[in-house]
Each structure stands twice: as C-alpha cells, then as structure tokens.
Specification:
0% helix, three-stranded antiparallel sheet, mainly beta
Length: 71
C-alpha cells in the first residue's frame, strides 16, 4: 500500500532475477493527484517505470526471472 498524500512516491521493486513467479501488488491508497511510480533494475512490461496516477488504482506484477510483467 502506498500513501502519496504528502508527495509523489517511488516504489523500488526488488530484482526480478532470482524471483521467478514472485508477485507484488501495489495500491495507491490516498485521494491526492500525487503519483506512485514503480521502478526496477529491469523492465516492467517493457518499460523503465510504471506510474499509478489515479486514487485507489492498483497494479500487480510478476517476475519471470528476467523482468517484471504486469498481470
């Protein structure tokens, strides 16, 4: 759960390497327009980062042991 009410938040995902099958869910729990950005040392569904812009939105990612995939 991410509370970005004070300022934009950055969530650093752990390495996808060595995490095959691991799932992580991130949900923005505040009502502000501040963003919550997922970042990783590998791609996230082919992107460098993924940003949650809307209040109460959530994303789940899964590692294939090489990168994170949005599921």
């Amino acid at each position: 759960l991410v509370d970005a009410s004070a300022a934009a938040a950055v969530i650093n995902l752990p390495s996808a390497v060595g995490s095959s099958g691991r799932r992580i869910t991130v949900k923005k729990i505040d009502i502000t327009n501040n963003t919550a950005t997922l970042s990783a040392n590998t791609d996230i569904d082919g992107l460098d980062t993924f940003t949650i812009n809307k209040k109460y939105d959530a994303i789940e990612v899964m590692s294939d042991n090489a990168q994170w995939w949005i599921i």
